[in-house]
Amino acid sequence: MPANSFHSLKSKIAKHFVLLSLMLSITFSAVVFFTLFIIEDSYFELRLEEEAAFLHKSYERTGEWPEPRVNYMELFQTRTEFPEDIRAIAIEEPFRIEIPGEDNRYYHILPFNQQAGPYLVAEVGSLLIVRAKRESFFWLLGIISLLMILIASLIGWRLSKRAISPLSDLAQQVSSVSPDNLTQPLASNYPSNEIGLLATALDEAHARLARFVEREQHFTRDASHELRTPLTIIKNATELLAQKNNQFSSQQLLLISRIEAACHQMEQTITLLLAFSREQMKSNQSSANLLAIVEKVIVQLAEVYNLESIELDIDVAANVEWNIDTLPIHILLTNLLSNAFQHANATKVSIWSDGNCLIIEDNGVGFSPEIKGSATQVLSKGEKSDGYGIGLSLVARLCEHLNIQLTIEHQDCGTRISLIPVRKSITE
After folding, report:
1. Angle made by CA atoms 370, 373, 376, in degrees to the nearest 5
2. Which of 3, 54, 170, 422 matches a 20 to 30 Å C-alpha distance to 391?
């Protein structure tokens, strides 16, 4: 995982707490502010209704409308008598009961007889506490919101620390687990909660992985023994035969020398593959000449496959060398060329170099459609293939270990495979 892609859960939880508190503070401030406006307007409406009830009773008793008892209220018989700064709006919008005037004046209107008049008008501009003190209210609500955010940040940080610390400890403990000590228990250090369940699941996964590793180690050890024993017998037999060279013809001695070379190559291959499976394979800094390895592989494969029907086109520069040991490159090319000769049904195989890139191309049938996207996976092979589906998987893993870029291009007729070492090649 790239270092710049790491995001701490602790900081995320704290940020969410801050955002939540900010949203709540804004919502709380807005609700409080608008509630104050509503309360203030409701108070003036209540006063108007009380005064209107008094005036109406007086009118019913005397037949005349009395003057309002409070000095900020006036009684008008028609809208045309309204104060000049609200008269036009009141006539244009007859159902409007609140109208702002000039010079910070503000009017509340209560009509009698369902808009037929008269009209009780209260000028309350000097009595509007909320509007006059709104800047102070903003400051007060802002300070309260800031305190809420600070408190929420502190709570979020403490809660995230308590919640994430066990998970961080588990992640650190898992990252420090040695491949040689996968059975080290984790769950015993954590409480019976979700993190404890995760630690238990990791313990079970580590235990299964340890059993798999143990079985693989037994297999590689047994395979090493079972493969080396017959090779040793064959090698000793060929050495004894070679000592009696006067009893064999030159053709027979040539076959014996081929058997000896094949045994030596097989021993090296087994050693390399076993070291690779045990992750003990080391990359040497020696250089390998590509043309020499290609020619050696073709000579060896010519003894196995009938190459007379295949047109070989080799154009590898003699001065191109890779900073990689010869043996793994030999295995890579043996697998790739064996596929071209045996499974591709090709009539032409071309091998050439382009700078430090080695390209192998054939005009065979290519890969089956069902495995084109998974050709380098273990046991991946077409329905008509008589192979085991291991060769290309081994090639891909060797390339990954040796820092070689492997590219497989599926063409209309055949396949092109490119090998490019990431490290710079040596050209002399």
Report:
1. 105
2. 422
* String of DSSP letters for 316-364: --TTEEESS-HHHHHHHHHHHHHIIIIIS--SEEEEEEETTEEEEEE-S
Chain centre distance of CA 247: 70
Measured in whole angstroms, the distance separating CA 5 from the mean position of its chain's CA atoms is 9
CB-CB contact of 282 with 327 (8 Å): no
* Number of Cβ within a 10 Å radius of residue 384: 9
The H or E element that residue 154 is part of is helix 134-175
Residue 289 is inside which H or E element, if any?
Answer: strand 288-289
In degrees rounded to 5, what are phi and psi of residue 405?
-80, 120
Q: What confidence score (pLDDT) does residue 6 get?
A: 60
CA distance 57 to 13: 65
User: Tens of pLDDT along 358-383?
Assistant: 998 888 776 665 555 555 554 455 55
Closest Cα to residue 288, out of 236, 332, 335? 332
List the alpha helices (DSSP H) in 176-249. 194-243
Instruction: Please work out, in degrees rounded to the nearest 5, the angle formed at the alpha carbon of residue 21 by the alpha carbons of 20 and 27.
Output: 90
Pairing mode of beta strands 98-100, 119-123: unpaired
And the tokens for 7?
Answer: 């995001």
Sign of CA dihedral 314, 316, 317, 321: negative
Q: What is the pTM of this model?
A: 0.48
| Amino acid letter, 336 | L
